[in-house]
Design a protein that fits this description.
about 375 residues; alpha+beta; three-stranded antiparallel beta sheet; 16 strands; about 25% helix; globular; disordered N terminus
Amino acid sequence: MVSAGVAAVITLGTAATTNNALAAGLPDPHQLPVNMDSDGDFLANREEFAIGYLLFDPDQNRNLIPDGVELANRCNSVIGSLPWQGQQTDPNQTYKWHTPVFGIEFCEICGATINMGPAGIVNPRLNLSVSFPLIALHYIEHGSFSYNGTIHDGRVDVPLLLRVLETRFPYEPNDHQLPLNYVVKGVGQLAPDANDLDEDLLADTEELTAGFDLYDADQDANLVPDGIELAKQCSSVIDQLPVYNPYGGGLPPEKPYKINYFQHGLELCEICGGQVNMGYWHIVNPKLTLFIDVYDITCHYLSHGSFSFSGLKIDPPNAPFHNGRVKIALLLSILEMPCRCGDLGTIYLPGDLNKDCKEDLNDLADFADNWLQSTGT
C-alpha cells in the first residue's frame, strides 16, 4: 500500500512545468550549475558533445531560455505523458515506474517532501532504460538535470535519458508532423520511403536530392529538426508569393508567383478536422520554367511543419481525398530557397559570425567576446 504522501509525489512529471521565478525574469534556484559548462546553459560540455549541441551557444534557438533548462522542461512534458508501468496500451510503449519505500527526503532548495525510492523509464522498443532517485523528477520539473536532496544528490544521465525518451530537441511537436511511415488506408505510405538516418522528418532520398545532410538532423543548430523547419519556411514563402490572375489581362510577374485555382468545396484535415478549400495553388517560376500544384490542404500541413498531408472528403464516411507528400526538391527549386537570410541552407560569409547575413562591427564584437573560448572539455 502506498501512503497518501507517497502517492502525491508519484504524480511528479504529470503536470506542465511551472516556473514562476523564470516567468518573472529570475533564475529558478533549482537550476543547479554544472561543472565544465563553457556556455553556462546548464548542460556540461561532454553532454553537449554527446547530444549534438553547441558548446559555446547557451541559447541556440534564441528564445531567451538556456538550452539545458528548456531541454529539461521538454523532458518533463514527455515524461508526464508516459503511462505508468502496467498501464501501457502497447507492449512497445515507453513507460515510467516508481518503487516507493518507507522513507522520505527533502529538496535542499524548496524543502519539498519526496519519497526516497527509485524511479525510472523503460523503452521496450529500443531495449533501453534509465533510472534515478524520484527527487530527480522534482528537479527536472524545475528545469534542471542535476538534483540535490537530503539523501540523494547527483545528475541524471542526460544523453541516455534523451535516447530512452527518443527526444533530442526542446521543441513541442505537432500531430500534423506525420512520420515518414505514415499510411493512409487505401492510399498507402505518403512518403517515398521511411529511411531517415538523422530522424529529421526528411527521407534520406529527399535529403540527397535537395542537397541536405542526411546525417545531421539540425544543420543550422537552432534545435528544430530540419524537416519541420523547412516545411514551415516553405509555407511562409508560399504565403508571401504574389497572386497572378491569368484572366486579368496583365503580364505575369518575372519572379515566382502563384495562381488561385480554389474550388467550390471543402475538405477536412485528417488530424485536426479543420476545413480547407479543396482547390490548389499553381506555383510558377518563370525564369526556370518550372511549376508545381500545391493543394490548400498541403499548405495547411506545411504551416504545421509537415511535407506529408492527408485530407478527407467532407461528407461521411469521410474517405481519403487529397493525400501524399510534396516533391521537396522541386518545390525548393521553384521557390528558389533559401531565399531569405536564415532559411535552412543559407550560406553565410566567412566573417558573418552572428549569421545576420552582414559582415559588420557586430561580428567583430562577437569575435572579441568569444576569441578566448576553448573547445577543451
